[in-house]
Amino acid sequence: MNIILIAISAALINNVILSQFLGICPFLGVSKKVSTAAGMGGAVIFVMTIASAVTSVIYYFVLVPLSLDYLSTIVFILVIAALVQFVEMFLKKAVPGLYKALGVYLPLITTNCAVLGIALKNVQDDMNILESVVNGMFSAVGFAIAIIIMAGIREKIEDNDVPEAFKGAPIVLITAGLMSIAFMGLQGLIK
Amino acid sequence: MGKLTERLKNGIVTENPTFVQMLGMCPTLAVTTSAINGLGMGLTTMVILTLSNFMISLLRKLIPDKVRIPAYIVIIASFVTVVQFLLQAYLPTLNESLGLYIPLIVVNCIILGRAESYASKNKPLPSIFDGIGMGLGFTIGLTVMGIIREVIGAGSIFGYAFMEKANTAIAEGGNEKLADFMAKQGLFEPIGIFVFAPGAFLVLAFVVAFINHRNIKKAAKLGEKAKLCELADCASCDKVCASNPNTASESEVQA
After folding, report:
1. How far is B7 from chain A (nearest CA, A)?
2. Which of B19, B25, B73, B216 has the most A C-beta neighbours within 10 Å, making it the best mutation to test the interface with A?
3. Integer Cα distance of A163 and A154 in angstroms
4. Whole-number Å distance between alpha carbons of A145 and A42
């Protein structure tokens, strides 16, 4: 039951982008087309799930026993960077089909602060390894939902007559603000 | 000395990281719920940026080119950890309100970007000033955002609740009718949504639109085409961070 609560709250209520502001950069940058947004979303789900598992295993089996938990920021960012490289190489060799679909987005993910943010949040909130994996995976699902909706709206905005000064970044930010208001309405789901 | 002041001006005005380059969006949106938080985050980032610029500039000839990005990340992450300890010890309230976003300074594009594009190629002293300039630019950006959101969303500025004070002042000044009217019309009611998540997006949108509007006007006077604020499509950072340059350029084409 707890696991389901974590999943819903990670994906919808505490949406990584719209309420925690993690991963804003790809959300604004890679959301011009639905197809690229979906690719990015898929890549983030893939990496974030693995990264949550690996970082929480390292935290509980290496850092805590050696009482080095204050080093978690340094260790996590290096683990994530190495992991992204490793996943890229592994996919290229083992699952070329999936690599073709996600490959180009993988290097972008190292700079995605959502991955490090969720990994740090997992250990900060004392989640066990299973809970961390669920939290990581569904946070990424929330990311995918938000970026795909955003891309759908931006494809429509292209045809609209936007005031000169609001073209480009401002109209995208206003759209994000309205989406964020809509997602605030989901807060009543869990009481 | 001219070069050093030029560095400062470059960071604060010409290449302002928040409003011109639109980098480091996560903290810009997340921690600017009040002016003091924005200021605190900006200064923390500035300290880390200056220290890491200095260190990377000192080590620029020792770090092999192939492993420079991981090396930079380790240096930045170490400074972030140190600064986090200092905040925990001396400014616990600020540490609490910034929370998760302090360790996330590690992945702030601005810091890695300056390391790669400036500190790795220049002497320590200019690098320090580059860090201070960029850091101040970022601090100003965050503080402006924080002030706007706090004024509209909470009716206060740096914690001073001026709306409430104004309301009671009118009532005490014997003008109870006016105070009553104000209260009924909700004129002194802050708009709470501006300190929540949606407000961050909206305020930044209008600030950027304002800058665009000024640029358009300026360009129209000169008869040129205006340069609008463009979203950094992460490319600036990816170039820095992707250790495999081929995949990075490929992804830019795709995106």
Report:
1. 26
2. B25
3. 15
4. 10
Collect all residues with Cβ–Cβ distance below 8 Å to B47 and sequence separation of at least 6.
B83, B135
Distances (CA, A) of A134 to A139, A151, B237: 8, 26, 29
Band of residue B191 on the pLDDT scale cut at 50, 70, 90: confident
- More confident position, B233 or A87: A87
- Per the document, the length of chain B is 255
Parse chain B into domains and list their residue ranges.
Answer: 2-153, 156-189
Is pLDDT of B246 > 50? no
Determine the Cα–Cα distance for residues B203 and B185; give it in Å rounded to an integer.
24
Q: Are A150 and A37 in contact (CB under 8 A)?
A: yes
Q: Is the ipTM of this complex over 0.95?
A: no
Distances in Å between the Cα of A56 and the Cα atoms of A9, A79, A163, B189, B190 are 20, 11, 47, 45, 42
B residues 214-243 lying closer than 8 A (beta carbon) to A: 216, 228-235, 237-238, 240-243
Q: How far apart are CA B63 and CA B56, in angstroms?
A: 9
Q: Which residue has the tokens 């602060």?
A: A113
Nearest CA in chain B to A176: B201
Q: Do B80 and A121 touch (CB under 8 A)?
A: no
The mean pLDDT of A17-45, rounded to a whole number, is 85
Q: Do B234 and A24 touch (CB under 8 A)?
A: no
Rounded to a whole number of angstroms, the distance from the CA of A2 to the nearest CA of chain B is 23
pLDDT of residue B39: 94
Given a contact cutoff of 8 angstroms between Cβ atoms, the answer to whether A165 and A35 are in contact is no
- Give the CB-side neighbour count of residue B39, counting CA atoms within 13 A: 9
Alpha carbons B91 and B87: distance in angstroms, whole number: 5
Q: How confident is the model at residue B249 (pLDDT cuts 50, 70, 90)?
A: very low
pLDDT in the model for residue A110: 66
B residues 121..180 contacting A (CB < 8 A): none
CA dist B117 and B236 (Å) reads: 10
| Inter-chain CB proximity B205 and A108 less than 8 Å | no
CB contacts < 8 A, A to B, total 170
**Count of residues in chain A:** 191
**Angstroms from A159 CA to nearest CA on chain B:** 18
